[in-house]
Here is the input.
Amino acid sequence: MLDIEGKSVEVQVRRSKRVHGHRIVVRYGLPPELVVRPRATRADIEDAIRFHRGWLERQLAKAVEPRLGLERLRLTEEQGRREARARISLIAQSEAVALGVSYSRLTVRDQRSRWGSCSSKGALSFNWRLVLAPHDVLDYVVVHEICHLVELNHGPRFWRLVERRRPGYRESKRWLDDHGWEILAYRPPAATAAA
Ligand SMILES: [Zn+2]
Here is the structure.
């Protein structure tokens, strides 16, 4: 247990042969995990926590109580992926036509830190978790990646193009900064097993 800003935070300790010294992992929605060598003593563990404390405090300050109430949706990953693929493909197709570009592949996957990507070969990849965001936000991420088919960088020309296609994109971007972590932390209920 660790006391951070008046709240006690439980740090889970895991022993691993593959770690040199120690490291700490913070995943939103889960208790922080400290990984130590198999023979680490209690004093080693306390030292390690002391060492990571400042960083840990900053990470946890960002992970405040969930505000979107996503759990209420009871959306399974399978449902989410299906819906994400349908909505994303629709936007990607019409946006590609509008910009006169084409992509080679569109993949929807589970990603813990990114929303979308575009490879130099024109393969697009999106995080299914975008279905948990407001429609404008999902729309912005798709348009952002399609714009990379024209400009594969984040230079001023790229942002001008995004703005031309979606003049209100900054609001969606801000929404992702504010709430993105909640979406990444969403843990879908397990799909009901087939009888
Ligand atoms: Zn980008």
In short: The CA atoms of residues 141 and 148 lie 11 Å apart.
